[in-house]
Each structure stands twice: as C-alpha cells, then as structure tokens.
C-alpha cells in the first residue's frame, strides 16, 4: 500500500445530507473518520446511525453534500469495505448454508461469473475458523441462534478483501461467547491496521473506541471519545430530561468512567459486558 | 393393454406429442426462474404479471401482429406503471401491482370483446391451447426457454445475493437493481414463451407450484432448482395423462397437479416431523426406563 493510501481517511463528509424518499434521516453534517482504529457511531434510536453506515457502505447515495470513502465516492469503494449486517436480519425462506453465506464474501473479488479458486476457499475456511463457525458450515442459516448468525455475518465480512469493516450494532443482544468472539475480531482488525466502524447504543463501547461520532438527526460531534462524550453533548443528543435528573452521570469524569450513567441511556442488555478496545 | 401402453397412449398422436413437448419446455423454464420469483417473495407480482400481458396478446390478435411482441409491450407497460406509481405516491408496491393487475386485465378483456370470436380467444389466451400448439410455437418457446434457463443459472450469484438481502448484494457489488430488472425480463419471457402451451394464467401454476414444493424439500438453492424442474416435468406428464384419462382441460390439469403436489408434500413433511418427534419421545422414555 502506498503512503498516500495509508494516509487517506476512511471517510470525509462535508454538508452530507442523507434521505430515504421524503424522509430526511441526516441533515447537513461534516465529519472525518480516520484511517485505522475503531470508530463508534452512537446516538438514540432513529438518530441516523444505520443510515450513516449504509451511506459509508455505498448503499445509500448522498441526497446532497459530498462523501468520500477511501478517497473515492462511497459506491466505488465497496471492494475494500466489508459491510456486516445485523444479526436480526435473516433472509427467510432462502435455503442457504453457513458456508455459502461466508463464500459470498468472495463475490466482490470474483464478480458475477468467475469461479472461486483454491485461495478463495482457503480464505473462506480461515474466516469460518476465526469466528468459530466451521462446525456449522453445513447448517442452514435459519437454524442458527442470533449470536451464531452474527458470527457468520462477520465471517462473511472477513472473507472479503477489505481495509475497513462496517458493523451495524455488532454486539447488541448477543450471547456472551458470540459477543466475546466478535469483540476479539474488532481488536484484531484494528491491530491489522484496518478501520472498524460500528454503530452502538452502549456508552461503554463508544468510550472504548478511538474515535466517536455522536448523532441525533445529524452529526453532533466527531472526535476522540473524551471530547465527544461530554455531559453537554450527551444532553444535546439524548434530550436534557434524560440526564438532567440523574446524579449518577460521570461520563466526563475519568474517575467514574464506568459509572451507572450508561443505565440511564440504555435498556438492560443481558449480553453487555465491558469490551474496551484499548488494553 | 400393458401398463406401458396405458402410459404411452395419451401421447400417441402428433398433437398430443406437441402438447407434451410444449408443456415440458414451459415446465423447465417456468420452474427454473420461478425459484428466484419465490425466493424474492414476488408471487403476487408474478400473478399480476400473467394477467397483465393479456391486452398485449389481445391487441396482437385483433391487429394481426406478433403476440410475443404484444405481450412484451404489455409487460413493459406493467413494470413501468408500477414503478411510476411507486415513485409518484407514498402507496405501497402491492397497491400499485393490484391497480395494474386489474387495469391491464380489464383492458385485455375490452380489446378481446371487439373480436368476433370473443370467448374462444379469451379462453385460449388465459388457459392455453395445449393441444393446438404448433411446431413454430414450440421453436419460439424453445429459444425463450434457453435464454431463461441459461440466465437463471448464469446469474446465480447476483440472484442469490438479491434473495439474501438487496442491501448486502449492493455492498458486494452485485448490482441488485440491474439483477431485479433482469429477473423481471426472465419472468416476462417465461410467461410469454409459455402462453400458447399452458395459457397466461396457468403458467403461474408452473412458476410458483414446483418452486414452492421444492423449497419444502431443499436445503440449498441449486438443489431447489433441480427439484423444482423435476417436479414441473412430473406435473406436465402426470397432468396430460390425467387430462386424457379424465377428459379434463390439459393446461388446467397440469397446473392442478403442480399445486396439488405442494399440498401433498407439505402434509408429508408435517407427518414426517410428527413421527420423528414421537420416535424421539419413545426412545427417551425407553432410555429412562433402562436407567430406572
């Protein structure tokens, strides 16, 4: 990889507006997502997190403004960007095995027609081993638990040639084993010099990231977590009422970093655990 | 009469053989592209589509031009109309499909009613003229079938991606919008190519029946396609045999067999599940008795 490619930010947006039909999901926003490291997109429900992820994946075209992914229009960067679907997403009725789902990760490289090679098959096997789904290879996607399915979707992303991974709420509602496995992958991707972008509801996850984008219908703040996740910003994002009454908020206080403030923002989630990306 | 004669008799004459060949070709193309139609959850669209080609074919008969061209124009009008309503209004797609469905059907009946042989023309378009299929029609049908079957197999990756998730397909560079358009074109070809052999309405039995049955029996899409083709071929042979023996309409009997097979297989799989569960429960009880 050339030096200039390494220095190119994962994404650069200016005046970016995102909309579905008549519904504007994100009003004009400017932000930069650095190359390498973990970026967390956080915000309340319906704040446009998944929409932003879709635009980074090139699925949703900007309504106005500009968005460059790896220095190119987002729709042209798909070969280098692996997009991981939510575990809830299940193509019902499509008879498809785990191995075939993971193999789809090779389609961007092989295109519509070119057959898979030995090295493709090795890559598929490697990704399945990494996510611990090799023994599920012949299982039907519909027979898996949510956690297993999410691991299969991450394996699909890793089977793809990529420099960046986009994950839509990768740890939400998962069993502990699956959450741990995927959390490890987030670390290892970061260590390999790849960019990881994930959406989350969880303040702990956001604080553990290298870079945070706080959303509420637009990008409220973008930068290092200690700067972005200030009490004032969180009040702006989640509404004054949700934090105002609580004396338990210690978000901008490093002494109380793991205080119960998160509980004021998040519904109880049995699988939540502390998966910091910095050790 | 030997059992072999009993089976061969319905296909002894030239027109019966043409009916069989026309039906077999219709079965192969419809059941192949039908797999993708079922996986995409487009059955209602398919149903509307087979009605919507009627005015094109009717106009072709009245003004004496190729019925294939007429059906193709009607297909384009139908798809364009749905897309136009979808873009201009906030209505859901099924409402747009429903509007075009009845509108095009009514237009077709109105056009045919201007023809002197109203009932005969309408019946043969809608329900097929199985025993009146000509060699020329079979040739045209074979060309369209080749395009549809090759297309359904060659476009395996983009079609699988689209059935899996349009969003995911897009991020894999599989161009879901183009794939969807190609799928519509293949469905249109299957309907247009089959209408003389099995009729525009009853081709729907082969588009949905065998693929739906195959879905109950298959764990992968390639197996689903193979099973669907075999079931469709069986429906044609059994349907035509029954039609000969019972004196019923050819295309209708084929469609009835295709759909009837679905219910038989559905019940058989349901029964198999129950028996398997009982066997497992019995084995468990026995194991408990042994331990006790």
TrEMBL record, chain A:
CDD domains: ABC_Metallic_Cations (cd03235). InterPro entries: AAA+_ATPase, ABC_transporter-like_ATP-bd, Metal_Ion_Import_ABC, P-loop_NTPase. Residues 11-241 form the ABC transporter domain. Belongs to the ABC transporter superfamily. Keywords: ATP-binding, Nucleotide-binding, Transport. This is Metal ABC transporter ATP-binding protein. GO terms for molecular function: ATP binding; ATP hydrolysis activity. SMART domains: AAA. It comes from the Bacteria. PROSITE patterns: ABC_TRANSPORTER_2. Residues 251-279 are annotated as: Disordered. It comes from Propioniciclava tarda.
């Amino acid at each position: 990889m050339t030096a200039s490619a390494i220095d190119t930010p994962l994404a650069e947006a200016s005046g970016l507006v995102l909309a579905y039909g008549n519904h504007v999901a994100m009003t004009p926003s400017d932000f930069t997502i650095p190359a390498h490291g973990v970026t967390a997109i956080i915000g309340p429900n319906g704040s446009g997190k998944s929409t932003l992820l879709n635009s980074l994946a090139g699925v949703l075209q900007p309504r106005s403004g500009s968005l460059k992914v790896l220095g190119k229009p987002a729709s042209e960067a798909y070969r280098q960007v692996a997009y991981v679907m939510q575990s809830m997403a299940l193509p019902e009725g499509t008879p498809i095995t785990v191995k075939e789902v993971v193999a789809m990760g090779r389609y961007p490289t092989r295109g519509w027609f070119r057959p898979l090679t030995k090295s493709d098959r090795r890559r598929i096997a490697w990704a399945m081993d990494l996510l611990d789904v090799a023994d599920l290879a012949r299982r039907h996607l519909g027979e898996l638990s949510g956690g297993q399915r999410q691991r299969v979707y991450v394996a699909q992303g890793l089977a793809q040639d990529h420099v960046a991974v986009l994950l839509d709420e990768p740890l939400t509602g998962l069993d502990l084993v699956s959450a741990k496995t995927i959390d490890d992958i987030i670390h290892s991707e970061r260590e390999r010099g790849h960019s990881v972008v994930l959406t989350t509801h969880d303040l702990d996850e956001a604080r553990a990231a290298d870079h945070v984008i706080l959303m509420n219908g637009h990008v409220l703040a973008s930068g290092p977590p200690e700067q972005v996740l200030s009490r004032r910003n969180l009040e702006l994002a989640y509404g004054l009422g949700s934090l105002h009454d609580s004396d338990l908020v210690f978000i901008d206080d490093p002494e109380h970093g793991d205080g119960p403030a998160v509980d004021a923002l998040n519904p109880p989630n049995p699988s939540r655990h502390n998966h910091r990306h910095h050790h | 009469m030997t059992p072999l004669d009993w089976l061969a008799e319905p296909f002894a004459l030239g027109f019966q053989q043409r009916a069989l060949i026309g039906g077999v070709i219709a079965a192969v193309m419809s059941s192949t592209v039908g797999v993708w139609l079922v996986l995409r959850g487009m059955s209602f669209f398919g149903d509307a589509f087979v009605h919507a080609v009627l005015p094109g074919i009717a106009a072709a008969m009245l003004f004496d031009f190729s019925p294939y061209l007429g059906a193709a124009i009607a297909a384009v009008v139908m798809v364009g109309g749905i897309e136009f309503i979808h873009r201009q209004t906030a209505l859901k797609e099924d409402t747009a499909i429903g509007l075009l469905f009845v509108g095009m059907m009514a237009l077709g009946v109105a056009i045919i009613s201007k023809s002197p042989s109203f009932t005969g023309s309408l019946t043969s378009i809608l329900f097929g003229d199985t025993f009146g299929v000509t060699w020329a029609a079979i040739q045209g049908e074979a060309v369209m079938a080749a395009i549809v079957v090759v297309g359904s197999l060659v476009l395996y990756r983009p079609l699988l991606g689209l059935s899996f998730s349009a969003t995911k397909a897009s991020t894999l560079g599989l161009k879901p919008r183009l794939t969807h358009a190609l799928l519509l074109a293949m469905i249109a070809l299957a309907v247009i190519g089959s209408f003389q052999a099995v009729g525009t309405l009853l081709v729907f039995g082969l588009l949905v029946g065998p693929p739906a049955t195959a879905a109950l029996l298959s764990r992968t899409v390639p197996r689903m396609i193979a099973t669907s083709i075999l079931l469709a071929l069986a429906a044609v042979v059994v349907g035509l045999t029954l039609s000969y023996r019972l004196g019923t309409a050819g295309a209708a009997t084929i469609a009835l067999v295709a759909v009837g097979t679905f219910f038989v297989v559905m019940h058989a799989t349901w029964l198999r599940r129950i028996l398997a569960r009982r066997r497992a429960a019995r084995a468990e009880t026995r194991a408990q008795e042994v331990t006790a």
